[in-house]
Amino acid sequence: MKEEFTDKTENPSLIKILAHGLVWAFLLLFPLPYFGMNSSYFLQTLLQSLLLATLFYFNLYWLIPRYLSKSRALHYFIILLGASALIIVISESINMMFEPVIPQVSLPVPPPYSPADAGPLLMLPFLLPTILKTILVVAISICFALLDDYFERDKQKTEQANRKLNDELAILKLQINPHFFFNTLNSIYFLARHKSDQTAGAVLKLSDLMRYIIYDSARPKVALTQELEYIRNYIHIQQLRLHERNRVNYSETGAFDNVMIEPLLLLPFIENAFKHGISPEEDTVIDIQVTLKDHNVLLQVDNPVISDQSPENKGGIGLANIRKRLCLLYPGRHELVAGEKDGRYRVNLKILISDNELHYS
């Protein structure tokens, strides 16, 4: 199962609904300061607004997707001009129907005219307000179409980036599983070769670890208490093959109950400590400490470097893998300092836990 990421930007659907509401409220209420709350005029404005809304959504959801978006601009403009002309004719018919009851206002008006006697040019001043409103509505609908296209492209871009990120994280997590099993099977092989009575218990512990990896770690986040139990079981299996001169000091400090964390995030550092810090010929001490303080998960690992190369340079995928996962999962919320000094390899990892990674039962 992949890690799931969601876009945290504002919901474009809510923005669109608010924008539509503001546009139609403006067109409906704009004339009120001039004409007042006259019921006849309000009905006239309402009918004309419904006509404009028809043109608006006809252009936005039918004309533009069917013609303009498919590079059929000529067909688009022909149909748009025809639809706009029809809306203007019907709107003017409504004006003439309501003209006798429209209240008089103290605004300059053109001289009386008879539509039957006036030519097209003489009628233009009387049609101009309706034409301008129609052009305005068409322009706004085109702007809305551009916004819809922007949001859709942005959504597709975000989904594509998330798919790429999820695929990369899935690959990184899959790499951890065989890496872990190789190390753990080596420990059990050591016990079996020496015919240890602890072999059966180690196999049982391994089955618990496998159950965690296969089922629990498939989730995007797990309880930190589960992750720590997994680490304790892993350390227990590793200790079964250690000599008396090899010691492991493991401690936990803090209240971990309500913290969620990315699974299999801390283990690679501990794996490397056992891989490079244990020798049957030398006295060795591995110190591992996990602390929760001020919403920060702190991991400190200190181990001797027994092999010829440090864990950072040794062949394998452990530390390189975990560095990539930290950058992808906790960008700007983690600090990792790891390196060798005076024959010991030290890891200091700090992860800031956000509020949505805390749960309360």
For the structure shown, list the relevant keywords.
single chain; 361 residues; alpha+beta; Heat Shock Protein 90; 9 helices; 13% strand
Q: Can you describe what's shown?
A:
With 361 residues, the chain is of the alpha+beta class. The chain folds into two domains: 12-101 and 115-157, no CATH class; 196-357, Histidine kinase-like ATPase, C-terminal domain (Heat Shock Protein 90), CATH 3.30.565. It has helices at 12-29, 32-35, 39-66, 73-98, 120-193, 199-214, 224-239, 267-277, 318-329, and strands at residues 222-223, 246-253, 260-261, 284-293, 296-304, 334-341, 344-352. It has a five-stranded mixed beta sheet with strand order 2-4-5-7-6, with helices on one face. Strands 1-3 form a two-stranded antiparallel ribbon. Helix 5 packs antiparallel against helix 6 and helix 5 (120-193) packs antiparallel against helix 9 (318-329).
